[in-house]
Write a structure and sequence with these properties.
The structure holds two protein chains of two kinds. Chain A is about 55% helix and about 5% strand. By secondary structure, chain A is mostly helical. Among the domains of chain A are: about 40-165, Response regulator (Rossmann fold), CATH 3.40.50.2300; about 230-285, Arc Repressor Mutant, subunit A (Orthogonal Bundle). Chain A has a five-stranded parallel beta sheet with strand order 2-1-3-4-5, sandwiched between helices. In chain A, helix 10 (about 235-250) crosses helix 11 (about 255-260), helix 17 crosses helix 23 and helix 29 (about 635-665) crosses helix 32 (about 695-705). The termini of chain A are far apart. Chain B is mainly α. Chain B has a single domain (about 35-170), classed as HPT domain (Four Helix Bundle (Hemerythrin (Met), subunit A), Up-down Bundle). Chain B is about 80% helix and about 0% strand. Classes of the chains: A mainly alpha, B mainly alpha. The interface between A and B is medium-sized, with 27 and 32 residues.
Chain lengths: ~725, ~180
């Protein structure tokens, strides 16, 4: 007997683009409807009117609450407007205005909703693409109603997964299990119908859940290694990897040698090879022209420019910050005295490094202690996010793709780390959505705890003017342009990163700044994560306090990210945070103590996560405590040098923006400001991309590459010195 | 819901059974049933000849009291959009040099729509067109497209007839349908 199910009460008939009626019975923020799965809020996107009508009807038969949309751009804006309203998105792959995969990325980055792809195309590679982009399922058209009846499981699974993620991030066993399941799933199922969806979900879950998920693709691609345990590329591990690569030279780096240099037990050549591949992609992305407006071409020039301009900022010696590292102590003094020092040490640190280091000594000191920590945790992601940032300006999308998931994870992690209480959690696009924010927050918090927050990210944000909030922050931090880094000089590694991240999540207004901006912020994040690397940068000058990175994250409300982050719970990064090198000395206003967790480079980033979470926004927040110079207490003066360099380079573009931001010392994170400045809405894509570490890392990488002066610590993804300025929340 | 006579899924079979039952019990339905028989055989032909496939049943199952003409609405929508698409493809085929990628995109769209309503023959022709497109075989594309157009026109006509009959059958049909 045919089931004559009553259509869902809320939706009207076949009206396309019908919006759901009022708030569902469940919490608007995404709680389960009481008669779950009935009432599940689904957004259906398909340009084909016939399919749209049919699937809509099917969904209504399943008692779901359906909203239809025939245009991807509209769908995205709808999702943004009503954040938290939808539980699930069903999207077609081939659409005229936007590629379904791009939409998928955006959604993943910004809202972290489960997305199911549909297409008449059942080729394995397309299905695989869906998986790698993070789709929870892939349905082949013509769609039948049976698979649709089960789509609610994706929502539940995701929520559960997120919870679990928070509880214990990065369980190795889980990774292993997932990877095995994943492999089996891939082998068994060609068409990702709901039946096989589970596998896909596992895959996706795995991808999302673990920051070091990048192994996914590799593992998938290598069926022979079905049972190979997944290697989790933690920030330390990645840092070692990058160090090794830098030592060998990117062109000559072969997995075997890298493996030898790394001296990590249990790591196989294949692991390294796949990781290297990703890293190369990341680098390539970074080198793609990004925000031209700020940092054109070589960082050096940018750096110089930024430095100079930075210096002029209210007495914030951003450059000094940029130099961070070594300059820190001196910078701080210099900064405090208002003298600007263009420490154009010619940091040729990779963008990311700079980012991290961009602890703009400028006033904004604050923060990002947490960011640093987060950065640490994020490490890897940050790097990616940086690249994303950089790309952001440009194409970002691409960057985001691979790392999308990671970013989200990072975001999540960061959020956890940050635990910033900022009320305004901007659920910006970070995939982890809230988690990102939280991450940021937590980062910021940490930072603030330390004392000052350098919101490098903020600055970045400002500078980059990337409309997307997230990116903004990160940009500021990661500054693909490394501008930020240079500017800020102070790099808070974890904090920065977190601030970046938070910035991201915080919907940092996308300042018009090019993606670099964000990348910067992102980069800082990664650097932050690799506190080791950044150490030096963090120190930068005390001015670091002024890292508006975080603040620049534009909209103050977004800074909420940082705040939002605070709420996040256990993030993997948390533990990392503790380990993060945070420069305690950085502390201009003795607000933040950056504890530099020096892995390699002792980088002290005064993390003063001012309670004003603002900073938290982004790891990028270069902890630019003026007083607290993230002196690289470490020994490695070299580190400081590098840090400085990075900062210089990064600040180039950010400078301008930064200046504005910096001016806000102690104000909410500059990032916010910058973000605000740039709050133009950047194309979604950018936004998302920015969020993603890829961008940042790319940016960072670019910067790093350009500035690479054989600094071994150049860990593009390492933005240590981001202190989140007191992001005005 | 139309009477499923052949290759009917269980539900339809049951329905079918009911209808027959009614026919036996209620002779006044004879008239209705003749119309329905006509409809049924029409439908059977469509399926047997491969014009329609399983997916069409899916559509029918979506139809209910609250959307009683769902299938017809969908089919109408399909033909409206697909006609436009066919015209676009026709135009694109006239161009020289051939933009195969664009053609393929069009055809992919058409194929997706067609498969959504269960237009089997059309879908197959679309597939073969795409194959020619991939090989950049212009001649093959042209020939294949003629077939696509033909299938499109034929199906359109047949379904129009079917729905016309269905509408006539409407009230009575509803009465019988209510028995499910």
């Amino acid at each position: 007997m045919n089931e004559r199910m009553d259509p869902a009460p809320t939706s009207s008939g076949q009206a396309t683009a019908s919006s759901s009626t009022g708030p569902p019975d469940a919490a608007a923020g995404g709680g389960m409807p009481t008669e779950f799965p009935a009432g599940l809020r689904v957004l259906l996107v398909d340009d084909d009117a016939t399919c749209l009508k049919i699937i809509e009807m099917m969904l209504r038969k399943c008692h779901y609450d359906v909203t239809t949309c025939s245009c991807a751009v509209t769908a995205l804006s709808m999702l943004r407007e009503r954040k938290g309203w939808f539980d699930l998105v069903l999207s077609d792959v081939y659409m005229p205005d936007m590629d379904g995969f791009k939409l998928l990325e955006h959604i993943g980055l910004e809202m972290d909703l489960p997305v199911i792809m549909m297409s008449a195309d059942d080729h394995k590679d397309v299905v695989m693409k869906g998986v790698t982009h993070g789709a929870v399922d892939y349905l082949i058209k013509p769609v039948r109603i049976e698979p649709l009846k089960n789509i609610w499981q994706h929502v539940v699974r995701k929520k559960r997964f997120e919870l679990k993620e928070l509880e214990h991030s990065g369980s190795f066993e889980e990774n292993q299990r997932e990877s095995e399941r994943h492999k089996r799933a891939m082998e068994e199922c060609d068409n990702a119908t709901s039946g096989c969806g589970e596998n896909l979900k596992n895959i996706k879950r795995k991808k999302e859940g673990k920051e070091e998920d990048e192994q996914d693709v590799d593992e998938q691609a290598d069926p022979s290694q079905t049972k190979k345990p997944r290697v989790v590329w933690s920030s330390e591990l990645h840092q070692q990897f990058v160090t090794a690569v830098n030592q060998l030279g990117i062109d000559k780096a072969v997995p075997k040698k890298i493996l030898e240099l790394m001296k990590v037990a249990g790591l196989t050549r294949e692991n390294v090879a796949s990781h290297l591949q990703k890293y190369r992609l990341y680098l390539r992305r970074l080198s793609v022209p990004q925000h031209q407006d700020r940092l054109d071409g070589p960082f050096t020039s940018a750096q110089d420019a930024t430095f100079r301009s930075v210096g002029t900022v209210d007495g914030f010696d951003l450059q000094a910050l940029a130099v961070s590292g070594q300059l820190l102590p001196q910078n701080l003094s210099a900064l405090s005295s208002g003298s600007r020092r263009v420490t154009n040490t010619g940091l040729r640190m990779p963008v990311f490094d700079q980012m991290g280091f961009l602890n703009s000594g400028n006033a904004s000191s604050t923060r990002s202690a947490s960011v640093q920590q987060m950065n640490r945790g994020l490490g890897y992601f940050s790097g990616f996010s940086n690249s994303i940032e950089s790309r952001q300006l440009g194409q970002s999308h691409q960057l985001v793709e691979p790392y999308g998931n990671m970013c989200s994870q990072v975001g999540e992690e960061i959020s956890g780390l940050l635990n910033l209480p900022s009320p305004q959690t901007t659920r910006s696009s970070l995939p982890g959505g809230i988690s990102n924010e939280q991450v940021n927050r937590s980062l910021i918090m940490h930072m603030s705890q330390q004392g000052q927050q350098f919101s490098l990210s903020q600055q970045h944000e400002n500078f980059h003017g990337q409309p997307f909030p997230r990116g903004q922050i990160f940009n500021g931090i990661g500054g693909h342009d490394s501008r930020l880094s240079s500017k800020f000089g102070y790099q808070m590694s974890p904090n920065d990163i977190s601030s970046h991240i938070s910035g991201r999540t915080a919907n940092i207004a996308q300042t018009p700044m090019p993606g670099n901006h964000i990348s910067a912020s992102y980069s800082s994040v990664p650097e932050a994560l690799y506190a080791n690397n950044i150490h030096d940068s963090c120190l930068t000058e005390s001015a670091a306090s002024h890292y508006p990175l975080a603040s620049s994250i534009g909209d103050t409300p977004t800074t909420g990210n940082v705040e939002a982050l605070s709420n996040t719970s256990s993030l993997k990064g948390v533990t990392d945070l503790s380990n993060c090198n945070i420069y305690s000395e950085l502390r201009q206003n003795k607000t933040q103590d950056w504890k530099l967790k020096t892995v390699n480079i002792s980088y002290q980033s005064g993390q003063n996560l001012a309670p004003k979470q603002n900073n938290a926004d982004f790891g990028s927040s270069l902890v630019a405590h003026q007083d607290s110079i993230a002196t690289v207490q470490d020994e490695s003066s070299r580190n400081t040098c590098t840090v400085r360099k990075e900062i210089l380079s990064v600040t180039t573009e950010i400078e301008n923006e930064k200046i504005e931001c910096v001016a806000q010392r102690n104000s909410t994170i500059l990032v916010e400001n910058s973000i605000r400045l740039k709050s133009e809405s950047m194309p979604d894509i950018k936004h998302q991309e920015v969020l993603y570490d890829n961008i940042i890392s790319n940016d960072l990488m670019d910067v790093g590459k350009q500035q690479q002066e054989g600094i071994e610590q150049d860990d593009p993804e390492f933005f240590d010195a981001y202190s989140l300025e007191n992001i005005p929340m | 819901m139309a009477l499923h006579i052949s290759s009917a899924p269980p539900i339809s079979a049951f329905h079918h059974l009911l209808c027959f039952f009614f026919h036996d019990t209620y002779p006044e339905m004879e008239y209705a049933s003749s119309l329905q028989r006509q409809l049924a055989s029409m439908k059977k032909n469509l399926f047997d000849q491969g014009y329609l496939d399983e997916q069409f049943y899916q559509l029918e199952e979506l139809q209910d009291e609250s959307s009683p003409n769902f299938v017809e609405e969908v089919v109408t929508l399909f033909f409206r959009d697909s006609s436009r698409l066919v015209a676009n493809i026709d135009q694109a085929l006239q161009k020289y040099p051939q933009d195969f990628r664009r053609l393929d995109n069009f055809m992919h769209q058409l194929k997706g729509s067609a498969s959504s309503i269960g237009a089997a023959k059309m879908k197959n022709e679309c597939t073969s067109f795409r194959e020619f497109c991939n090989k950049e075989n212009r001649e093959g594309c042209l020939r294949s497209f003629q077939k696509v157009k033909k299938e499109h026109a034929v199906l359109k006509q047949k379904l129009e007839n079917y729905f016309q009959l269905l509408r006539q059958d409407g009230p009575v049909d509803k009465a019988t349908r209510s028995g499910n």
